[in-house]
Amino acid sequence: MGIALQTSPFFQMIEYLAVFFCGMSGGMAAIRKQYDILTIIITAWLTALGGGLIRDVFLGALPPVGVSNLGYVLTAFGAGIVVAIIHPEVDELKWSMLIIDALALGLFAVNGASKALMYSTTSLTAVFLGTFTAMGGGMIRDMLLNEVPQVIKDRHWYIIPAVIGSFLTVVVWRWEEAKKITFQTEFALDVVIVVLVVVLRVISVKFNITVPGAMKRTHVHLPRRILVREVHHRGKPTDDPAFESTSSGMVPVAGGGEESRKTPERKTAAGNGIRTSVTSTGSFRFEDPDLKASDAEEDRRVMRVVSSDGKK
Questions:
Q1: Which residues contact 292 (CB under 8 A, 6 or more apart)?
Q2: Residues 80, 85, 91, CA angle at the centre, nearest 5°?
Q3: What domain of life (predicted)?
Q4: Could you give the CA distance from residue 95 to residue 206 in angstroms, rounded to a whole number?
Q5: How far apart are alpha carbons 294 and 284 in whole angstroms?
Q6: Predicted TM-score of the model (pTM)
Q7: Containing domain of residue 279, as a range?
Q8: Cα(195)–Cα(264) distance, rounded to whole angstroms?
Q9: Could you tell me how far CA 113 lies from the centroid of its own chain?
Q10: R_g of the chain computed on alpha carbons
């Protein structure tokens, strides 16, 4: 928590509840995979305290609270044992678990950013570590269970509320540090930040508000010169008498005559009028007639067939 929240017995209790229900969430993921009780407990522990482990390792705060705070560790282990017993009931409480997960997201974001600032990090570092604290446990859980991490798979607002919560925590901390706000005001603003994170997360799921993906486009805009490219084929053109297949590739047929020296032009299977020029090395050069280049430019681009005696 921030300094204000850390000194509040009420929010210390809320933090233990957040650890407990995050552990239940991780345990449920292991139960759905039909793993044994030991795996369920370990997954619950990593989900509840994994974000704090990442944060403390980055800060050099060793040993991390995830292995040194007996209260947190026992709470996480207890969550795994409890969910192994009441998992059918927990599985039906989807919205309740969502709200509790969102509450943990907000509490851990404030916790991570505040602890980073206590170690005199920059504001940007504090935002990153607050976000890692909020999301890290879920990422470790999903990777441990060979799943796509929820932060990537879930297109609803998940990382966005965590980033906002971490950023606002840094702002409030700097205000308090500059004596612009009192201790009581800091406490109230920390509460507002946690509530804001919960509201953003729940609203995004309730109303199916998702993060947009890549822009959908149907046309490609590239310089015309890029559209003319050389493509090498190993096989022999089936309808070209001027070439024969050898172990080194396609070579011109000796004495192919005037017919073999002509630049064959074909249409593709779709009949789009693309001109194909065959070189003496057995390579094909595709050109787009829509480029409307001058005859001189076209003559320079098209490579004529060279016979085996080197004459054009």
A1: none
A2: 85
A3: Bacteria
A4: 9
A5: 21
A6: 0.66
A7: 224-301
A8: 72
A9: 22
A10: 33
